[in-house]
Write a structure and sequence with these properties.
The structure holds two protein chains of two kinds.
Chain A (H helix, E strand, L loop, with lengths): L1 H19 L7 E7 L6 H20 L8 E7 L4 H13 L5 E3 L4 H14 L3 E3 L16 E3 L4 H15 L4 E7 L2 H16 L3 E8 L7 H10 L3 E4 L4 H12 L7 E4 L9 H4 L7 E4 L8 H14 L5 H20 L4 H8 L3 E4 L2 E5 L6 E2 L2 E7 L2 E8 L1 H4 L9
Parallel strand pairs in A: 1-2, 1-3, 3-4, 4-5, 6-7, 6-8, 8-9, 9-10
Antiparallel strand pairs in A: 10-14, 11-12, 12-13, 14-15
Chain B lengths: L1 H39 L6 H17 L4 H28 L4 H24 L13 E4 L2 E4 H23 L1 H11 L1 H6 L4 H27 L6 H15 L4 H21 L5 H15 L12
Antiparallel strand pairs in B: 1-2
The chains are: A alpha/beta, B mainly alpha.
């Protein structure tokens, strides 16, 4: 009896909260399910900094339609099961209007399914897997960062210009990310005339890559593509250097292969490495300069692509809600489709057909230990076809 | 015909030679493990972390300006008292219980976890890579080999031979083998058994530290590096015979060559299943390993 009373009291409380939710000065709640601990904590940190900075700016300028934004954080530990549980809590208990922050592609796909059932919208600012806005697209999921296909398309443009008709060898880590990145770049590279001379998939955490060098040497490639990450990159690149293979070989790879985390350990062996990314602090535009300065002043650290894309998302959501004059799912979804808005990377457009952001892509080359922009590829040239058939 | 020669020269031979360098690295880690097991009957789960200990110690001392060649001698020496203290103060506390295998395994496993997190707190999670002390490479009959790998093979072989010589050919080695064979009889004949135990443990730890210093320029230094070699080293110890130095050498060379050749002809992904499969078959057919235990041969 007491329990029944408690439940109904709780229900009444929520109902009251829901009713008062429409009052103008009440905050717009955005849930953030992101890894704050574990392997991806570094990425989650950038997501948090980017979102916090944008929200601070928006709120200082009067919020969205006079309502301030409130961010509610939950740690997903880079685990899809935990992400779903935390997202459910945010949707059902905290009644958030919108959700973002998921990092691993598995978490984004899982939380996307939950959002569909809950009738809410989510956006990822980090996940790379093409399938999120491809064959596993969802009407409730948006992506404001560049996907793997856009990154490899940008790199392929560089390849066709600098190394026409190149003979390419592929070396990837043997799991979902490694195989899909190699497949994506191979498709883009062969389209621009490159030929494949061999491919090897090494176990994750391989100690010694020298056992694959025989195959690499025998295939006599001009370009080596790799998508290993973290410590694996340190070993692969330093061993390539040790065996003198870098002398007449161009090294290209995924955007997560050489990062600010491992570049110091790789040292000279990283020199000349080329990759395609959606952001660099070097982008020469007033929007980016303002963003980088504000970011550095607030957090004493440089933003990376995750920080920049998360920052941009808040402005996309603001623009969509102001266009829709509402935070209701259906109206915001309509407003986000085809939305054009300004970000540190310049103007981005959300493609209505698959909810993927179209943006300029950059070819980045490591020169003297710095990530230098070596070329820009227009958004429309990098985006690739819309393969989403669900909506 | 020319193509076959080309293949042997540029693909097969380098594969075998680089496999040899990796084999020496694995044997260096495994040999300390096998001595500790053969003598103390302790499965040292923290062996990989002591390998990392050596690498981090060399890294930190290198920052202070000490040259690599000095560190290669200094760090293993400095790890002797560390190993000695661990044996006397930790292992001995749980050593004389009937469930010794379980208690010492859990103790060393826990010690490994503590050390790994200590490295993470002290040095952060990101990797470091010391510069290769001997840059450049040689080309022998068209086989390309970095100088440092050549150095690794030579120095590793010398150290392994020296260890075998001490254990099998000296009076000290005879005391160690006697203590391993029959502790009580050795003690009654005047062998300082407690000292021999702690000394052998310290020696095993010191060898792991030596491997850490030697391999850091090739495999880089990071908190979880200890896990890299430990599975392979355990496999070598099991296949070679627990406690047998000759067994560790033979099994180490054999298994790393199996890996190298399997990576070429089957697939890199299958190298681990094949090697661990050999270990499982060995445990079923000949559980004592290729060679017998220390003190029994």
């Amino acid at each position: 009896m007491v329990k029944a009373f408690q439940t109904s009291a709780l229900a009444a409380l929520f109902a009251a909260a829901a009713v008062t939710g429409v009052r103008a000065a009440d905050p717009i709640r955005i849930g953030v399910v992101t890894p704050l601990s574990g392997t991806y904590a570094g990425i989650g940190q950038q997501v948090r900094w980017g979102l916090d900075l944008a929200v601070k700016e928006v709120n200082a300028a009067g919020g969205i339609m006079g309502r301030p934004i409130e961010l509610l954080y939950e740690d997903e530990e880079a685990n899809p099961a935990v992400a779903v549980q935390k997202a459910e809590k945010l949707f059902e208990v905290a009644k958030v209007d919108f959700l973002t922050g998921t990092v691993s592609s598995g978490s984004t796909l899982a939380v996307g399914q939950l959002a569909e059932r809950a009738g809410k919208l989510i956006a990822t600012t980090v996940s790379f897997a093409d399938s999120i806005t491809g064959d596993r697209c969802s009407p409730n999921v948006f992506r404001v960062n560049a996907r793997a296909g856009q990154q490899s398309a940008a790199l392929a443009v560089w390849l066709s210009k600098e190394k026409p008709q190149a003979k390419v060898f592929y070396l990837g880590p043997d799991y979902e990310m490694g195989r899909s990145t190699v497949a994506a770049f191979k498709a883009s590279a062969e389209k621009v005339g490159a030929s494949t001379v061999g491919e090897v998939f090494a176990p994750l955490d391989a100690k010694d890559y020298t056992q694959y060098f025989g195959q690499v040497r025998a295939a006599r490639p001009q370009v080596l593509y790799t998508s290993v990450a973290g410590n694996d990159t340190v070993r692969l690149l330093s061993q390539l250097q040790e065996f003198g293979l870098l002398n007449n070989l161009s090294l290209v790879g995924a955007s997560g292969t050489v990062t600010s985390q491992n570049i110091a350990a790789i040292g000279k062996a990283a020199e000349g490495f080329v990759t395609g990314v959606g952001y660099s602090t070097e982008i020469n535009s007033p929007e980016n300069k303002k963003f980088v300065d504000a970011f550095k002043a607030a957090y004493k650290a440089e933003p990376d692509l995750y920080g920049a894309d998360s920052y941009g998302l808040i402005y996309a959501y603001k623009a969509a809600v102001e266009k829709a004059k509402s935070t209701e799912t259906d109206k915001v979804r309509e407003a986000l489709r085809g939305l054009k808005w300004m970000t540190p990377q310049g103007e981005k457009t959300i493609r209505a057909g698959d909810h993927q952001a179209i943006q300029a892509m950059y070819v980045v080359r490591i020169t003297n230990g710095q990530f230098k922009i070596g070329g820009e590829v227009k958004g429309d040239d990098a985006i690739g076809p819309d393969t989403c058939t669900r909506f | 015909m020319a193509e076959v020669l080309d293949y042997v020269q540029f693909v097969l031979a380098p594969q075998v030679v680089t496999g040899l360098a990796f084999g020496v690295a694995v044997i260096l880690v495994a040999i300390g493990l096998t001595i500790i097991f053969g003598l103390l009957d302790v499965i040292n789960m923290s062996h990989g972390e002591f390998y990392a200990f050596g690498a981090f110690a060399a890294l930190a001392l290198g920052w202070l300006g000490l040259p690599f060649w000095l560190l290669l001698i200094l760090v293993p020496l400095a790890m002797l008292p560390v190993g000695y203290a661990v044996e006397r103060m930790l292992i001995q506390r749980v050593f004389n219980r009937p469930d010794r295998h379980v208690t010492t395994l859990l103790l060393t496993f826990g010690l490994g976890l503590v050390l790994e997190d200590a490295f993470r707190l002290g040095f952060g999670p990101n990797p470091y890579r010391p510069d290769t002390p001997i840059p450049g490479a040689v080309e022998l009959f068209g086989i390309f080999l970095p100088n440092y790998r050549l150095f690794l093979i030579v120095v590793g072989a010398v150290v392994i031979a020296a260890v075998a010589l001490v254990v099998y050919r000296t009076r000290l080695g005879a005391m160690v083998r006697a203590a391993a064979f029959d502790r009580n009889m050795a003690a009654s004949l005047g062998v300082p058994v407690a000292w021999v135990y702690a000394g052998a443990f310290a020696f095993g730890i010191s060898l792991a530290g030596f491997a850490g210093v030697l391999l850091a320029p090739i495999y880089s230094v990071f908190p979880t590096m200890g896990r890299d070699f430990i599975l392979m080293a355990f496999t070598v110890v099991i296949v070679g015979g627990m406690g047998s130095i000759a067994g560790a050498v033979v099994a180490g060379l054999f298994l790393t060559q199996v890996q190298a050749i399997a990576a070429l002809y089957i697939s890199p992904v299958w190298t681990d299943p094949i090697v661990f499969g050999i270990m499982v078959v060995m445990l079923m057919v000949r559980p004592q390993g290729l060679f017998g235990r220390l003190g029994y041969a």
